[in-house]
Amino acid sequence: MHRAEQTTRTTGILLVVVSAVVFSTAGIFTKSVTTAAWGVIFWRGVAAAGFTLAYLVMRGQLRSEVRAFGWPAFWITAMMAAGTAAFIPAFKHSSVANVALIYAAAPFIAAGLSWICIKEAPGRRVMLASGAAFGGVLVILSGSVGGGALKGDFLALFMTLMMAGVMVAYRMYPEATAALPAALSSVVLLPLALTFGDPMATPAAEMPVLIAFGLVFAVASVTLSEGARRLPSAETALLSTLEMPLAPVLAFALLSEVPKPQVLLGGVVIFAAVIWSQRRSAAPVVQG
Fold first, then answer.
1. What is the pTM of this model?
2. pLDDT at residue number 200
3. Of 82, 84, 83, 100, whose CA–CA distance to 28 is shortest?
4. I need a surface site. Which of 3, 22, 157, 199 has the fewest CB within 10 A?
5. Cα-to-chain-centroid distance, residue 116
6. Are 39 and 193 in contact (CB under 8 A)?
7. What is the pLDDT of residues 174-232, one digit of tens each?
8. pLDDT digits (tens, 9 = 90+) for 83-127
């Protein structure tokens, strides 16, 4: 591997790790307020879009991002928006641990999408790990049957599919802009939030939390996008699963949220699959 390629890879790894650590706080922000899901989406979106656009203006990059905004960026924006629309309600309808552990299946969904879309075929080890991770997700879902959290779990699964799609899209089109789609994905949800929710009923005391959530989301989205263009899709998703152990720990420490046995068992299966799939003996990715 050439030095420039190694630098690009190292930068990508650091960016995705930062994104995962920041994203791990999302459940805490969402569940620490009484505001309904659409209200959270609205104010988080206003803040995230505002921070991101201000960042682009300060860096003098807004015009270049607008000029570079093509069809790939359009579809990335649409997937980010759809993922966010599912992400916030998932926390309202399920536990932080459930959502985080289901998202841990993202590497294997991304690997499958990469195989289909760009012939970036995963090795045998990743394929076997994908099957194990899928089994882990089913175990987590089984713990929600009849308990009222199944809706949230399926929303988390849909969000995971959308985020895996974003990772693959950036792998396919590394020249696609990163910051502008993140900002626009928040903007396009604002009319929907006003239509289906009542953001103006948000308690004033909760506004600082939602504004901080917007800043956190802006940082996480941009760093994930920038990292994804520098790494294979499956590796980006695997690194992003660092969120998995952090989110439940934060939920337990700050919200006293104790995961169900099925969630713990499913999480162990998924976590083991992720670790096993990353062993050095894993088959390399093959470009077709």
1. 0.76
2. 95
3. 100
4. 3
5. 21
6. yes
7. 888 878 998 999 999 999 999 999 999 999 999 999 999 999 888 887 888 788 878 87
8. 999 989 998 888 887 887 788 777 778 878 888 888 777 677 767
Q: Taking Cα atoms as reference points, which of 227, 126, 247 lies closest to residue 178? A: 227
- DSSP track, 65-123: HHHT--HHHHHHHHHHHHHHHHHHHHHHHS-HHHHHHHHTTHHHHHHHHHHHHH-EEPP
Q: What is the mean pLDDT of the chain?
A: 83
Please report the pLDDT score of residue 145 as a whole number.
Answer: 63
CA distances 133 to 71, 99, 115, 170, Å, are 32, 14, 17, 24
Rounded Cα gap, residues 238 and 94, in angstroms: 23
Q: Can you read off the two tokens belonging to residue 10?
A: 């190292």
Q: Tell me: the pLDDT tens digits for 250-261?
A: 888 888 888 778
What was the pLDDT predicted at 53? 92
Crossing angle of helices 207-228 and 233-240, rounded to 10°: 150
d(CA 83, CA 89): 10
Residue 257: predicted pLDDT: 82
Distance, in Å, from the CA atom of 70 to the CA atom of 198, rounded to the nearest integer, reads: 33
Q: What is the full DSSP assignment across 209-245?
A: HHHHHHHHHHHHHHHHHHHHTTS-HHHHHHHHTTHHH
Question: Which is nearest to 41 in space by CA: 166, 214, 179, 212?
Answer: 214
| Upper half-sphere CA count for residue 280 (Cβ side, 13 Å) | 0
